[in-house]
UniProtKB/TrEMBL annotation:
Transmembrane as UniProt keyword: yes
Subcellular locations according to the entry: Membrane
Pfam family, one: LEA_2
Keywords attached to this entry: Membrane, Transmembrane, Transmembrane helix
InterPro entries the UniProt entry points to: LEA_2, NDR1-like
Primary localization: membrane
Species the sequence originates in: Anisodus tanguticus
Membrane-spanning residues: 60-91
Single GO BP term: defense response to other organism
Residue ranges of every copy of the Late embryogenesis abundant protein LEA-2 subgroup domain listed in the record: 125-225
Protein name, per record: Late embryogenesis abundant protein LEA-2 subgroup domain-containing protein
One GO location term (cellular component): plasma membrane
Domain of life of the source: Eukaryota
């Protein structure tokens, strides 16, 4: 029997090469439907990494400025404390003292509307410092009793050398001064107590301090003397004031803008 010859699945070309199969869809690659992973990734937004945080230069500059200012202030305070300690050790500064040595009342007339007075005042000023001198401006003096002004006067300017005492004398008076009803009633009520009228003396001035060859600016001071009682003269002869633990206190009067300390 003769053998059957079957045709080949892919006919050979004339030159012996296989003939390619006919292309599907015009020769393009076959399209497959998208799977679930592809559809899920298509709906997600694109991931973009966050940029690194920027350094806040302004905040760091402010911190450096605050630190520098604090260090500067602390340094100034330390230097001032050291200078003050050295000054205290070298000079031992002390406040000058003022005492009322004598006070005489030669006139004290009180009517229903007016008031007149005359006082002879002697004050002792003492400088206890060995290396510090004081230069005083003219001193304004005020006499008052329970905030009622009963006399005004002044003392001339003077220089207070080291370890020096000055005797200052002046007349404090008030001539024909008009008082209101409350002031007159206040004075009359005080005079009922055996004519012993409480008195307060205030001395206001400015002083310049000299330390060695250096001089400071003028500083206001107030000398306050209280605890004095005066006896009103009944006749023409003057009377002396009675004192009881008279204390004259010296206070600095530093004025900053509108306030006085």
């Amino acid at each position: 029997m003769a053998d059957r010859v079957y045709p080949a699945a892919k006919p050979a070309a004339a030159n012996g090469t296989a003939t390619p199969a006919p292309a599907v869809n015009g020769g393009a690659n076959p399209a497959f439907p998208a799977n679930k992973a592809q559809l899920y990734n298509a709906t997600r937004p694109t991931y973009r990494p966050m940029p690194p945080p920027r350094r806040k230069h302004r905040r760091s500059c402010c911190c450096c400025c605050c630190l520098f200012i604090t260090f500067f202030i602390v340094t100034i305070i330390l230097l001032a404390a050291i200078a003050g300690a050295i000054f205290w050790v070298l000079y031992r500064p002390k406040t000058p003292s003022f005492n009322v040595q004598s006070l005489q009342v030669s006139q004290f007339n009180l009517t229903s509307t007016k008031f007149a007075s005359k006082f002879n005042l002697t004050v002792i000023a003492h400088n206890p410092n060995k290396k510090i001198s004081f230069f005083y401006d003219p001193i304004n003096i005020n006499f008052s009793s329970d905030d009622v002004d009963i006399g005004d006067g002044s003392l001339p300017a003077f220089i207070h050398d080291t370890k020096d005492s000055k005797t200052l004398k002046t007349i404090v008076s008030s001539t024909g001064k008009t008082l209101d009803d409350s002031e007159i009633s206040t004075l009359r009520s005080k005079l009922k107590n055996k004519n012993n009228l409480p008195l307060e003396i205030k001395l206001d001035t400015k002083v310049k301090v000299k330390v060695g060859s250096l001089k400071t600016k003028k500083v206001g001071i107030r000398v306050n003397c209280d605890g004095i009682k005066i006896s009103v003269p009944s006749g023409k002869s003057p009377t002396k004031a009675t004192t009881r633990d008279v204390k004259c206190k010296v206070d600095l009067r530093i004025k900053i803008w509108k306030w006085t300390f």
